[in-house]
Write a structure and sequence with these properties.
Number of strands: 0
Helix content: over 70%
Radius of gyration: 19 Å
Distance between the termini: 58 Å
Mean pLDDT: 93
Largest sheet: none
Low-confidence stretches: none
Order of helices and strands: HHHHHHHHHH
CATH architecture of the largest domain: Orthogonal Bundle
Structural class: mainly alpha
CATH class of the largest domain: Mainly Alpha
Length: 201
């Protein structure tokens, strides 16, 4: 990452951190963009350049922790896909907490779930990541993104991440996320999903 990219990243982090602190202290709806810029000690124009809308600030931390497509692109091209997928999942699970507290992380997630704007935007993100993940898996497999094996490979990786994330959210914060991932992956390798019967009348 070059000097300019590092500066951009520092600015985005400062803005997102200021937003999280205010959202948790004042509430999502009550917090203004101007308050966020002031808290980050940056100008409003800088804030709007990086985050045109308030919901993007609330979702930024979530996007970083769930962008499996981006994490997979960070893996070497010559790394076998099953290994690359697990290591991409581990990289996401090992990202630091956005607040430093499991209880506050849960509160932050609840803000997304209870505010229509961020919740709707989140679905757009999920669809975009799903499509990007299929593209990257397809590229590595040498197949089209809509190939059924590509689609199921990408979806099972995303499913594993989703299951682990939900278990971590519902726990007390002491869970070992990587150990939980491996338990889920072992289970997924053992199970035989019940599929609809195409021959049923």
């Amino acid at each position: 990452m070059g000097l300019r990219e590092r500066k951009v990243e520092r600015t985005r982090t400062a803005l997102a951190t200021a937003a999280i602190e205010l959202f948790l202290a004042e509430g999502y709806e009550a917090t203004t963009m101007e308050q966020i810029a002031e808290r980050a000690e940056l100008g409003s124009s800088t804030l709007y350049r990086h985050f045109p809308t308030k919901d993007l600030l609330l979702l930024d931390w979530f996007v970083r922790r769930f962008d499996l497509a981006a994490a997979l692109r960070e893996r070497p091209d010559d790394e076998p896909l099953p290994i690359a997928l697990r290591r991409a999942l581990v990289a996401l699970l090992e990202l630091p907490s956005p607040t430093g507290s499991h209880q506050l992380d849960v509160r932050l997630r609840r803000l997304i779930d209870t505010n229509p704007g961020p919740r709707a935007r989140l679905w757009d993100f999920v669809v975009g990541v799903r499509d990007a993940l299929q593209q990257e898996v397809g590229r590595r497999m040498g197949r089209p993104a809509d190939d059924l094996e590509v689609v199921t490979t990408a979806r099972f990786a995303a499913l594993a991440h989703e299951i682990v994330a939900e278990r971590i959210w519902s726990g007390d914060g002491d869970e070992d996320a990587v150990a939980e991932l491996d338990r889920v992956l072992h289970a997924l390798h053992r199970i035989e999903p019940v599929l609809p019967d195409p021959n049923a009348g």
